[in-house]
User: Fold these one by one.
Assistant:
Number 1:
Amino acid sequence: MDMNRKSKLEVCVDSVESAIIAQKAGADCLEVCSNLLIGGTTPGVSQFKQIREVCDIKLNVLIRPRAGDFLYSDAEFRMIREDIQMFQKLGADGIVVGCLRSDGNLDCVQMKELRKCAEGLIFTLHRAFDVCLDPYQALEESVSLGVNTILTSGQASDCMAGKEVLKKLLALADGRIEILVGSGVNADVIRQMKEEIHASSFHMSGKRIVDSGMVYRNERVNMGLLGLSEFEIFRTDGDEIRRARMVLSSQ
């Protein structure tokens, strides 16, 4: 294993405000999406354009037409292809995407087509990897397909629970493909993962709740996810990102 592997801190953002905070706090790159609370979906065009205007670090765009599984209909797959081409024209540095077959294996036919469609872009396989049948087979297939990065929690609810699988994935990757550790990442987790499995690339959101500016509040109506207040906004916490950056940059 390459102990001198360059470190990376990617921050996942779903607003212009969060993007600005994350860059100022020391993020190396951003994953731009919408709807982080449901795992993220493809961002809006105006959202991405505004982030591109104010951020000069690398922007990787999540291409996910809906929440839920990663078995896509023909119409959804066409949307994915068209969105890749659109965001490339708008100035994206990379795309974050993943397709599975119904049997749980990586859909190598679709992934090959997307890799070709995204020529010239950084290509990240997102956490579809974490719900695939065999992560070690999927890693080898990803290398063959020309995938640059795998974003993964080690097929667990969070990266600490998936630590042993992540350790194996890092060893198998052996510098051929980047293993980007995600889910539950903060400064303390980075410190532990650096020491115990020598991970060097991390993905986090560092979200905090910001109270709505609304003075009048009708609490009787819920617009979406039950149990979530309509008067709470999730934003990147700059202090969380700065702490993570300090730990990751320390020897």
Number 2:
Amino acid sequence: MTKQLDRPVYADGHRFFGRHWRGRVVIVTIVLLVVVVLLGILGILAGSSSLTVPDVVETLLGAGTRAQNLIVIDLRLPRVVGGLLVGAALGLAGALTQTFARNPLATPDIIGVTSGASLGAVAAIVLAGGTYSVAAGLLTIGLPAIATIGALVTAAIVYGLSWRGGVDSYRLILIGIGATATLTGITSYLIAKAQITEAATAAQWLVGSLSGISWASVWPVLVVLLIVTPIALVQSTNLDISQLGDDVSTGLGVAIQRHRVIVIVCAVLLTAAAVSASGPIEFVAFVAPQIARRLAKTGRPPLLASGLLGAVIVVGGDALARGVLPGEIPVGIITAIVGAPYLIWLLTRRNSKESNA
């Protein structure tokens, strides 16, 4: 009898960037890509100034009027593109952290990475005199850089404190919650000590909104996504293997600590880029990977589908806030309204499973 070598069980079936894909994942990814395009068009159309699809097409082709160019090219298009990139970055970051920690609660929002980036960004806003558009002064480079530093330092501290011969996901979450509370307190202190204009700007930014996005703030997120996404996809096979546990992963040849560092750095860079552009849009990194996993029916969140679903949530929520709801509500409020009940449901469901076990 021929002995068959044991191989790790992958969630999908076809090889791509080190990832074994299954047909359902491919279909879900393609469908989400189509939805992203449609929502992008809807996002350009949504608003107080009535535009038709032919108007938008003509404007994008360079045949629009001066007013249409102002509305489409200067105002709505950077907002939609920025929302797509921010949502994709948050969705991908959430998928990476949830997978490496093997816990759906281990998202950048909960383990302190978002709060670290927010603290850095608020510090940049205060130093810049209350202007939070990254096109202005210090913030052209300063806000993304300081947000990234804040996120990296926070992630390093939380990861280091969680280490006890390995990283336990629940310990990581508990320490992350404590770090989030501490960093939120420091951020509130900065706002309280700032001038009234700076405090108002920082408070508005902390809600999470696409209203301040310009082309200058879009480019850093795009560059980070273009660099980090291929690196994350290369780690997909190791992410699959790591679901089997540290001992098994090491036995199968995975350099588990180096793999984790790469995954964490990727997630931190994505989160910092998103936060520096739009503020902390809560719960996208938490909800998007879990919905993508259920749509694709995989054992862990699929990376590309999670990113696309994050883009759907952010752009769809922003279009809803501008085109349907009265007034202009920041998209961060919309995602919090959707995400908070889902978090409560997930916690209740996990507690019920543990009680029945």
Number 3:
Amino acid sequence: MNEEFVARLKREMSEMGISLTGKQTEQFYHYFEMLVEWNKVMNLTAITEMNDVITKHFTDSVSLIRAVKNPAEISGSLVDVGTGAGFPGIPLKIVFPDLDVTLVDSLGKRIRFLETCAEENGLSGIRAIHARAEDFGRMKEHREVYDICVSRAVANLATLSEYCIPLVKKGGLFAPYKSGKLEEEMQMADGAVKKLGGKIENITEFRLPNGDERKIVMIRKMTATPKIYPRKAGTPSKDPLH
């Protein structure tokens, strides 16, 4: 393994109170190697430089730990909607190996990468599912069954909420990762969150080690989501709830 990679990864994780084992460090390094290699033949990420991958992908993904009151809250079943190259789901799985993780993405090529990545890193209790978010949210076996839903997908909060809140069980959490100004987006999403059975609990603001601003919104599932949501494919993004 690259010594600089190991030193930087361990330093950034320790700043969040996380102590990595040798196995976890190896899993992160192999994940990085696979990401760079597969990215040569398919579009997984625009970020491939080692330090940027560590900070903007790995550390950012695991930053969910900053938003929870107790790390023990990151347990049970977690679904990552619009996971792309596996963020934040795979880094969270590496750090919290007992998590049962489901990765959802609409591109079949990415699913093959995610499955290979999980297999080669010896990650059990993780699956990758090829589906559009709207369709996935209407599948009975996935509806209101997850303890936590996360997403770093680029979409406004109202749209993301319609994709994700239907997946969360009552009492569970939806935690979207956001950057940039959020005030207007939060105001627009407030009504949508309530219609979907959620309640915005708090927003955790922090900076990554490189200075980039990040926010994680914590939305608690209070009541069952009405069966009409999510609406048919394409509607949540074209006509966000309000």
Number 4:
Amino acid sequence: MAPSKKKHASNQACVIPGGFTVLSVQFNSDSVAQHKLYVKEHKVRSERSSHRPMDRTLFVLNIPPYCSEDVAKQMFSQFGSVQSVELRDHPGSSQDSGPKMSKFFRPAAKQGFKVGYVVFENSSSIAAAKSHPHNVPLLVCTEEQWIQQYTESFIHTDNLQKIVDSFMEGYDKRKKEHRNTQKEHIAELRKKFEEDKQRIALLRAQRKFKPY
């Protein structure tokens, strides 16, 4: 009876202090080495109205550098449909708002372990992830997908030229609009200056004219 109990226990989820569930990760089915992820339901009241809904967001620690957002999305999709995945260097609020830039102009991403926010389409997926047996590893990616990602990482000159041209057109447009705004502001200041000069001249003339 003892061996059967041990086998049964190994099929249970492993929960550690802090409420994190341990998930094992393997590069592929033939890999011997495993990596550990630590997940729990995301519950931050200050982000209740953000794009990280508390009832559908899984907070993930210790995501390896080779695991991209696309890979993480596929890996966690076994628990249900994934709406979005966000990887960050540190826990916290969402990425700073600002103009969205092409990947060719963004600073190089830091190659280190990350934290993640996985948003599912259904809240039941959170329970499925938290109850996943720790001895059943998640597969990171297949070899074909890695080859595809490697191929897509190359920058095609035609696409890059289009992106550069589009960026420069936008830059020239914003610069022209800024210049026009400056010209209008200078013209308005000149107009006001001339009006003030006429007003002062009129006041001086009125002081010199004394009919009595």
